[in-house]
Specification:
Blueprint (H helix, E strand, L loop, with lengths): L10 H13 L10 H8 L3 H7 L6 H24 L4 H9 L19 H6 L1
Length: 120
């Protein structure tokens, strides 16, 4: 007999978690998030993160992936339209791998021939 508390992981909870991806706005969330999902289904963040790594719960890993993908898409669209503050959008998109980088490397090859040396 396994020890520990009984799991709350049930098909009904998985369906409720899936519904959050489309209904996050009903909770006044501007973007879907893991924290919003936690509040929506009443499960702690540590438990949700654990479920996302467990081999016997691949559907929950898919839900977490879809939340991140939807979050990224909403941020890009609303950031570009001006609906979201650009600094906050940039900050959160950094968590998705988007970065504002400038390449400061400049390379130059200079060669001086013997003809050029005579004029120096």
């Amino acid at each position: 007999m396994p020890g520990g508390r009984p799991t709350h992981y049930k098909p009904e909870l998985v369906e409720k978690a899936r519904k959050y991806i489309t209904d996050y706005g009903k909770q006044d969330d501007q973007i879907p998030s893991v924290v919003g999902l936690c509040k929506w289904i009443g499960i702690s963040r540590s438990c949700i993160n654990r479920w996302g790594t467990e081999e016997d719960k691949p559907e929950f890993r898919d839900i977490l992936d879809e939340i991140n993908e939807t979050q990224s898409q909403v941020l890009i669209n609303k950031g570009l339209s001006g609906a979201f503050n650009s600094n906050i959008t940039k900050l959160v998109l950094g968590k998705h791998g988007y970065h504002d980088k400038v390449d400061n490397q400049t390379s130059m090859n200079v060669s001086i021939s013997s003809e050029d040396a005579d004029t120096l």
